[in-house]
Amino acid sequence: MWIFPSDKPYNQGGSTKPRTEMQITGHDYNSGVWQFEGSLFVPFGSSGMSVMQIFGGNPTATTLMLHAYDGNLWYYNQKFVEANISNRWIRVNVIHDVDTSKLTVFINGQLKLTVNGKGGDNHFFKFGVYEQRNPTARMEARWMNVRILKKN
């Protein structure tokens, strides 16, 4: 998936920016423990974008966003997650324990981030490219082997 800063936003006249995202339908949730897993490739030179998110939060629209900035992966633009993600496949696992309001992020099987959730009554995972800060002329993210798991 890719976008250009000149692409039209999701909502004309709103504050949203260009995006190309996917959601696997039928996996909305409001309780329990859920996991997103997939392999991510960000080509060199793609920066200023969200590549994965958990939609649903309060008062924000999202509970988690993973951003790519200058070859590194960040929790929003606030906490560093992983260095040197450009031009290599990385396995991303995000676990959302709704009942305890905890989020954990693993990269290639290594724990990289633990943060609190942001509330909200309905959640789902999205992945792709969504323009954020200081975008490059072309923003691209490739995903494969994506799956959603629920702990029983």
Describe the structure.
- With 152 residues, the chain is mainly β.
- 0% of the residues lie in helices and 52% in strands.
- The chain contains no helices and 13 strands.
- It has strands spanning 2-3, 19-22, 33-41, 49-55, 62-69, 72-75, 79-82, 89-97, 102-107, 110-116, 124-131, 139-140, 142-150.
- The chain has a six-stranded antiparallel β-sheet, with no helix packed on it.
- A hairpin with a 4-residue loop joins strand 8 and strand 9.
- The chain is globular and about 40 Å long.
Multimerization status: single chain
Elements, N to C (H/E): EEEEEEEEEEEEE
Q: What's the shape?
A: globular
Helix share, percent: under 10%
Please describe the biggest sheet, giving its number of strands, its sense, and whether it closes into a barrel.
6 strands, antiparallel
Structural Rg: 15 Å
Strand order of the largest sheet: 2-11-4-5-6-7
Q: Structural class of the secondary elements?
A: mainly beta
Q: Count the strands?
A: 13
* Number of helical elements: 0
* Beta fraction: over 45%
N-to-C terminal Cα separation, in Å?
Answer: 32 Å
Report low-confidence residues grouped into runs of 5 or more.
Answer: none
Q: pLDDT average, as an integer?
A: 95
